[in-house]
Structure formats: structure tokens, C-alpha cells
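Long-time lurker. I teach an intro course on protein structure, and each term I like to show students one example going from raw sequence to a predicted 3D structure in C-alpha cell notation. This year I'd like something fresh instead of my usual example. Would anyone be willing to generate the C-alpha cells for the chain below so I can use it in lecture? Attribution to the forum is fine with me.
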Amino acid sequence: MSTATCLDHIGLCTAEPDKLWSTYERLGFTLTPPNRQSGKRRPDLPVEPFGTGNRCAMLKAGYIELLVLIDPALPDNGLQRFLDRYVGMHILALGMEEEEANLARLRRAGIEIPGVAWLERPVDGPGSALAKFARLPLPDAPEGRVQLIRHLTPELMWQTGWMTHANRAERLEEAILVSDAPAEAAARLSRLAGLPLTPDPLGGFRLTLPGPWATGPDGDGGCVRIIGPEALPALLPGVEAPALPFLAGFVLRTGDGNAAVRKILEGLPVVEVAGGLMVPPEAAGGAALVFKAG
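-- Reply from a regular --
Happy to contribute to a lecture. Here you go:
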């Protein structure tokens, strides 16, 4: 298949690892162990250590990456450029099944991608097995690290013990992008995905992914909503864009009608929104997190 398949993951970025990781543990997530990343700065260069690392909240469908800057002396894979804009969500990754077929499609569409960007990291601390990824980042995307990704070792990522969360989150349903030029942003995403857009009820655009997910569950593959700043208050009340474009938030579906997460969120500045509960950006690492009742 030479199109995107699913909303693979979103990524939050910071230079304060402990703060971000403890925030997500407080929100009821089980996180993977901290790990350093390695990769190729260009397709023709060897794999080398990066100054970045992450922990992830793995879901039955999709996941949340918590990406941090660990060693500023090493290549940061573009992370500092993102943090210079704002702390929060800068990664939007759509799943794919065939990197070479998608690379050929993108080049035919006039997108100058030098080649497949390879990335790897241990899954359970130094010396453990390496999770490996094939990526096709959209060059110079103003929205952040917008990319297609294929998991070469999905069995290492989606381990049973890492997919059980106290908040009962199970599925990454939506990512929300705010742009002062939503038609242009939506067109870029459509070209990257190789999929058509549909109108969004708030006046923007919706990119719906057909599935399957990397883990293979039934159902559609989630969606990306692209809206203008005037629509943001209706979708995520009280959220303000620190810069545009802005990856403003994401939606997770829980498996128990939000019963567990309501208890976990007691004492936090939660906002009731249509179909769920919103944790505002200041309490969720810089992006609004909506728990949707499943």
C-alpha cells in the first residue's frame, strides 16, 4: 500500500525529561523505560548516537511519544528547533506499510525526500533489543515533524505490560492541528498521506486514515483535524496557540466510559468537552489531552 494507513503516534517535546515523564505518570499512563535514540543524519551516513531520548505510552492502537533532549552536545535530530517555537506537541506520525512505494509516490508528487530516514533505539534500557523504524519526514514542514513511519519491529514496541494503563486509555483517535493557513496545511498532509480530505464540522479539514494500525485492530485508523485559530475555542476551550501552526491537542478513547480517568484527574484543572474530559496544555506537557468515553 502506497498511502498512509493510520494515526501511528503523536509526540510531545521538552528539555525537561523528568517533568514531562512524571506528568504523564500522574495522568495514569504506564510508560516504557527511558531510552536514547540513534539514527542517520542523512540516508548515506552511518548510524550514530543522538542527543535525544524518549519514553512512550503504548496504546492498543497508536501511542504517545514523550521526546526529550538529553545531551545537547550530540545531534538533536531537529528537536531544539521545535523547542525554540514552544514546548509541547511537535510530532505527527502517520503509519505506512511500504516505505519504498511511498517514497516513490512522494517523489512523483514533487516532494524532494532524499531517502528513507532510519531510526533505532533500545526498548528496555542500554543493551536491550533495538526497536527499528523506517521514516519519511515531510521536508521543512512548518507544522513540525510530520512524517510517515513503518515499525520494523512492532513486537518490541507493543508489549502487553506497556499497554495497560490505570486511566484505561486504549486508542489514539485524533490529532488536532491549528493553522492560519488551514487549506495549505491540509494539502500538505493530504500529499504526504496520499489520501483525500473531507470537510471538518468546524470549517476546516479532516484527514481520515483507513487503517490498519500497526497492531492490527479492526476499525478505522484515526484522523487528523486541521482547523483555523478562530475554531480553536469551540474545540478545545481555553487553549491558546503560542505560535502558528500549532499542534494543539489529541484525543484518546478509553475502554470504560472514562470512569477510571475521572478519579485519576481529581484535583487537576479538567474541562468538560463534548464526549469527554480535557486536560489543558499546562497540565499535559504543552498540548491539550482529551479523554473520550468509549
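Some talking points for your students: The helical segments are 17-26, 79-85, 99-108, 154-157, 182-193, 232-235, 259-264. The first helix runs from residue 17 to 26.
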